[in-house]
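User: Continuing from earlier, I have the next pair ready.

Assistant: Great, send them over.

User: Here they are, in order.

Assistant: Folding the first of the pair now:
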Amino acid sequence: MKRITILQRKIAFFNIFKWFLLALLVGIIVGICNAMFLKLLEFSIGVTNQFEYYFLILPFALYFVNRLAKMSPKDNDYSTNQAIASINERKAVSLISSLKAFFLPIITIACGGSAGKESPCADVGAGVSSFISKLFSFNKQERRKLMICGVSAGFAGVFGVPISGALFGLEVLSVGTVFYEVMFPAFIAGITSFQITHALGVNYIYHPLSLKAISLDGSLFQVVLAGLFFGVVALIFIEVIKLSNIIMRYIGSKTNTFIRCLVASAVVIAIGLLTSPDYLGLTMNRIDTILSGGICRRGGRGACNACIFYRCQCRIFLC
């Protein structure tokens, strides 16, 4: 019995050490990919933003992105939902899908579209981890664990949140639950990816907050009210996305791809012309200004409301 216990401890130690090294490897590679993505994205935005009405080329950019996305149809795991679905279904994510997730958002965002940074961090991390698992001839369960580490590393490096990024990578696969078996390697991959990305010259936006204890005299009511308000806005946003998706699918069934891209771009261009180009793309400058205590330079609250509709258009033109 004593020999069996010692043997089990050795096996457990070896397994922990193995996943520590694998998570370290995934964190390093994904961290480098994150830095390349963010640097290239920053460069592309800097080039296009030199022109005042750069967003007018968005219809052609969306059409070009659509054509690139249609290449190699079997490699279609280039969005967050598709990458997560592949992980949950224990399927591999190809490197071609990762390349699509890497370059397509850069083109879209640089031209004024809304693509976000979550797709590259999720799909590139999953694709790299899937490729590594193939090299080591892992089974489906081990591949899934390593792909979770890749997603965690991607989120942690892109958004500069090593701990919460790892937790998000664990929870996003199944909302409300955590895959505890892979928690340790996910934390290692997330922290390593963050350190590598930061060491390669990527700077993150941080805003120190001076928080006061919530009291029952009124601040608690304000927090509850704010939570209700944000929940309603999120619900409206989701429903607008669903409605926009239905409309764009209908337009796509009646017309060609370029007309659909033109219609989606028209909404974005209208917002850029009537409000402010700051609401286009990642809108990081606008967010940074607001969190720093600044006010909207142009457009006011109406522009903020219009931004909800803008965000939906560029996310569905590939459907």
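And the other member of the pair:
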Amino acid sequence: MSVYTPVSLMDAQHLLTGYAIGEATQISGITEGVVNSNFRLSTTTGQYILTLVENPEHGKELPWLITLLDQLAATQLPTPRPVRDQQGLAIHPLHGKASLLVTLLPGVSPQHPTPHQCRQIGETLARIHTLPRGKLEVRDNPMGIARWYLLLHQLTTRMAAGELRWLQEELGQAKLFFANPHLPTGLCHADLFPDNSLFQEEQLTGVIDFHFACHDKWLYDLAISINAWCFRPDGTLDDALLTPLWQGYQRHRQVTDLEIAWLDQACRTASLRFALTRLVARWFPKAGATVTCKPPEEYLNRLQFHRDNSIRQWITR
């Protein structure tokens, strides 16, 4: 949630003239995240999150996101609710970009996840995966593997030949993973990192930032969360976090034998996705007022770990 496009208090006050949520009293940028411009907005009646969608193509898909958030809210999952103006509209132009206002959920993102927090994340991810489709149309992954080839091509002038060959090899294996027609597919969060969750003490109070949500392999989405939640700062796997996350997920959706067979590859594939995007963000940074650039080394190391180790030994004990 970086800030690429500044929004002033006067901008916010003008935006809220069509809403029934009071007057804007304070606005501050949120620096976590890397894609859109996000702000914490206070009004005379409450607090909200304002997002400016920086990518015009993603802006066109905001109606899909709003439908998803409405359906998630109906299931009592702790997710933000879109805020509509007095005409029933949730999307408004601001500085030439699509903007969306959602409710601010209580809690803070965990810096050092605990086993109980990981269990709740596993449970919630499985509930997202098994959400009835309802009126929600199928959305292809906006960060699907075709995009990864473009990212790797960008890096050809920035990385050593040996590093590129390693990433190209992994990309080939990832292509085989996504091509498997027998791995279950459905709704995915696709970015469920600790900074996209909120807790009050040990209680999950929010899952946020569904801008990468899509329909893809459930195992891939689970692997993203395993990589994000279950490793120590030194890059080693923490089975005290993996076990409850896995058990929490299994409580609401049983992982198939085929998925277990592909789990190691799924974790390598999920590592590759974030290694590539972080490498490109480092070498080709966007201009922005306040931009967070996360270290690619974390996910290059994660990728190497999964090349050297089988994660299945921890979940099949």
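Worth noting for the second one:
The mean pLDDT is 94. The chain has two domains: 9-103, 115-315.
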